[in-house]
Write the structure tokens for this entry.
Amino acid sequence: VGVVNIEELDALVIGSGFGGVYQLKKLRDEGYKVKLVESGTGYGGIWHWSRYPGARVDSHAPHYQFSDPELWKEWHWKQRFPDHNELRAYFEFVADKWDLGKDTYFETHVTSAKWDEEEHKWIITASNGKIFRATYFLPHCGIAASRTMPNWKGLGSFKGMLVHSSYWPHEQPVLKGKKIAVVGTGSTGVQLSHAVSKEAGELVVFQRTPAMPLQMRQVNYDDDEESKPKEELEQFFKDREDGYWGFDFGFLGKGTFEDDEATRKASYEALWKAGDFTFWLGTYTDMLFNDAANYEAYKFWREKTRARIQDPRLQELLAPEKQPYPFGCKRVPLEQGYFEMFNKPNVDLVDVNSTPIVEVTEKGIRTTEKELEFDIIILATGFDAVTGGLTSIDIRGIDGVSLKEKFQERGPTTYCGISAAGFPNMFFINGPQSPNAFCNGPTCAELQGNWIADVMNHNRDAGISAIVADDESEKQWGELTETIAYASLLPKAKSWYMGDNIPGKPRRSQMYLGGVPGYYEKLKSCAAEGYKGFHFQGPKGLKA
Ligand code: NA7
């Protein structure tokens, strides 16, 4: 009879991205026995996996880092938009400074987590045989933990290299002179295809929906050059928390048509020149809420973009005359020459709407028009975003209810985007119905991570062994997130923001769009009112 070793913990954290790493440090500082588990072999969350050419964060320095002075006083960013190598180096630096290694298990992929109603503990099992019993279960899996692969016929028959962007090999494959296909034109596809085009012999991009990327104003910093003077950083991190999107900037504070045409044009030009996300998230307040306002922005983007593309066929495919969906209602990628890339003779675009992909063959991809031969096929086809990390684990709450089934039936249903009714002592960072993709990652990791630590402290002080969100509170939170989403134009686009990219996924906003400060106010007032919307139980006898 084998002996099963169960590790007893106050909390088990999943994920070595910003959320998990912050949570481990925070809870350890508060005196908890806590461990972090991670499927990968290193820190960084998505940055451990996303190593494709051109992979870099779209949040500019100094935003994308922790606010702990012990870190930023020493750390120097080399790029305004750090690439995956620099981001992994940052995570290694953090792990060293915060001494995370002693409490981390890598290559530990959690497969199930079950709530034990008798003991008020979670029993958490990993595929390598490790079992944990923890009072709190904190799956901070991130929004891009579960890849999506197309279900094309013949996918396994291709004799060349076929790879999903987030499974990029650690050892860079040779791209020089190769015939390469990139499928997908989201943030990943845009970065990836441009980087690959510099080496490829031939590149074909397969597009289903045109992206509406903006220009990344990349800067390389010298050793003595900072994105912002260190003496301003303390204030900067406070401002970051107060920004609508978790950045230190927000909307312009006026509507599109409050300005006359000339002023509006000048204003768009200034936003364009500033680059990055400003034309999206720092623009007129009504841009994401009003069709006419949105169309003004689209027209400006379209004309600027068309001017960069020589071939009229490609102009129409990449920046169509008729607006295909509201600007900014699919994730806006940042690019550094994506459109000029299509002017090269060895780069082409296949519109899979007019010539759909029929199958993958031994040699390449067959569309309804012809077979195209490739050495490498790269799938930049995205993720079961936001919920996929959670639903890929068999999580069972009170009475064995499955979180996956709950989300499958009703779409993401949470209370305050941080907990789910029926799942006691389980909290998540950047989870469904929180600002997640509309919050700079580290900003929300800290806000939510602190709040989770506070609730645990509260329970520890009060002798409470279990806390669970009420069904009614969860219902109200769902209504609020939907009301805000439908006040915006986001539901008018088909995107993973609404769960559209996964067949059968209920169409519901995956995020809370009311802004980071408003979200944090909700969390704080919930706590101030004695964790309103949750109910508590003493050491035993929790009832749903
Ligand atoms: P996205 O944003 O989901 O983009 C996936 C892209 O792949 C998108 O252009 C899709 O077209 C396309 N796609 C997906 N399936 C297919 C098939 N079967 N055929 C053709 N094209 C397809 O994922 P990313 O990795 O770019 O970005 C994910 C997030 O990570 C990003 O937003 C950041 O927050 C970080 P569609 O638009 O659905 O028509």
Remarks:
- The chain is about 30% helix and 15% strand.
- The chain has a mean pLDDT of 96.
- Residues 441-462 form the longest helix (22 residues).
- Residues 144, 150, 165, 183-189, 206, 208-209, 331, 352, 380-383, 437, 496, 501 surround NA7 (CB under 6 Å).
